[in-house]
Amino acid sequence: MGIKSSLCFRRAARVALMLFFAAIFSGCGNAPAKPQAGKGGGRQGAGQQGVPVAIGKVETRDLPVYLNGLGSVEAFNTVVVKSRVDGQLVKVAFREGQQVKEGDLLAIIDQRPYEVQLSQAQATLYKDQSALKDARVNLDRFKDLFQNGGVISKQQLDTQESLVGQLEGAVRADQAQIDTVKLNLFYTRITAPVTGRVGLRQVDIGNMVHASDPNGLLVLTQLHPIAVIFTLPADNLASVAQHMRGRPLQVEAFSRDDQTKLATGKLLTIDNQVDPSTGTGKLKAIFENTEEALWPNQFVNCHLLLEVRKNSTVAPAAAIQRGPQGTYVFVMKPDKTVDLRYVTVSLTVSSVSEITKGLNPGEVVVTDGQDKLQAGSRVEPRTGGTPGQKTEQTAESVQ
Predict the structure, then answer these.
(1) Would residue 282 count as lying in a domain?
(2) Structure pTM?
(3) Is 280 found in the same domain as 330?
(4) Which of 99, 138, 182, 300 is found 20 to 30 A from 245 (Cα to Cα)?
(5) Residue 14 falls within a domain, yes or no?
């Protein structure tokens, strides 16, 4: 028992000694390191680093004010060319896709049946004219006999006068029939009613055509000029109408992705009512379309130039921030620190904003990275293709 107790005591003493030295060494390892002289440590070192940001410049320029709307192209005139008489199509004088002028020959219907009808109507006219001539001679004789000797009765004289009137009516009817046949004969030559572009041919040579055919011979579309119908919110119509009184307003048509400019035209008119289901009004613009960039039923984006504000102070729209106390921007000072500046924005067009109060031309504003800034923060402008530079380029393109 004595030997075992001695061994246990020695082991416990060793364990206690080991724990003591372990505690000492652990305390020495956790001791805080002293900062080196002349070097900032912790937050002091981090505060000297500039926050990377994108910047843009405040400028003075003419600011165009646009109203944008979605529109569709409509032909100025669309004509379904049909035959006005029945007959066989004997000639097609156009090519598909051809540009024709008003009055140009398009097709010819067989004229022979109408020439025969004209000869018959003329023969009937000659016959009735001869009968009328004889009736008038007899009427003159009856008048002499009745007035000089009373050889004939008044009833016979009246009957002869009635016969002359009937024959005069027959002659007029014959002349009307001749005019009708001549008109039908004229209609056998189908000409272009307007200047435009010929579409695809609907009927081939040799087929019988009728005035009642629903599809007609072809579709003629006028592309020069051409119209675009687009919509704007009803709240903008009063301003548009006011600016229309002074000068014609310019309208630019862009592709569906709003990247490619297709044509430039003039605003023609505003519709006389507002669509209650959408709260928008229709406007019609006219384009010369000399390059045929616009086609009927094409969807386009319309930019209506309402006015141009001269010598406006503008800044990149990306620099504008909104907070509980109003609209503000971060202005970078020459020492690369920023100042929080509250501004008044009167208008935002595309990627630029017009500033009426709070900024001066030539100042530099932060356009990206504002979420990491506060008044007095040090910044470092980015180089290369930064969002700030992209904003500046977009702003220049608006000019």
Answers:
(1) yes
(2) 0.65
(3) no
(4) 300
(5) no
